[in-house]
């Protein structure tokens, strides 16, 4: 009996690494808002059409549906970005489940109030409120569940790719020049970044703790193909960076700067490459 109890405690105390980043929270908020609008619009559940099978979508119904989705999304955003971090500092399974349950309760309460504001409080009753909680829970569980499955799948995929990359750390990268006569062999962890200069590229790498710069006559596109299976990605028109050497990210939404361990200079990130880089590193500028 004691072992079973201990096993249960351990199960509920396991950490949950979901909805921690701003990106993940915005994914939940936006998807839930869009889902609610489309679900109410096309399925018209819970008597939103006054149980009239001949009911057609008109401008008023469309506006009310969109407002419900926006109010729900705004409420969820406030909860996820401001309330949840204060109320649930621990991220165990028990705390995460409580966090989701409270979000549905708050959503139901706010939407019930908004519904009555639109209808001049025509349905301001406890029975209706309890039904609202039930209906919002049934409807809200769907987008929340889909979002969590998507985020978990993405984390598993990222972890797998990183494990595959780590297996290659002992294999040497062989960089070849345009004419095939010049070669540079490196262990992946030695490579810092690559900078394009006209028809040449400078390869910045470390040897015995010393940062060195090697010159190759080749193109960035050719190097990208050679490095496709490693944790090295394009971050700028003129730069490739080893994401495993990134120690800190600074800057703003227009341009980031990567600080690499072992490199004195920072590496710029163009705006168009920021989303892919943030997804790869799972970090945000400071």
Automatic annotation (TrEMBL):
The keyword Protein biosynthesis does not apply. Signal peptide: none annotated. It holds the Pfam family LytTR. Keywords: Membrane, Transmembrane, Transmembrane helix. InterPro entries: LytR-like (IPR046947), LytTR_DNA-bd_dom (IPR007492). The keyword Membrane applies. One of its GO terms (molecular function) is DNA binding. Residues 188-283 form the HTH LytTR-type domain. The chain crosses the membrane at residues 28-48, 60-84, 96-117, 132-151. It comes from the Bacteria. This is HTH LytTR-type domain-containing protein.
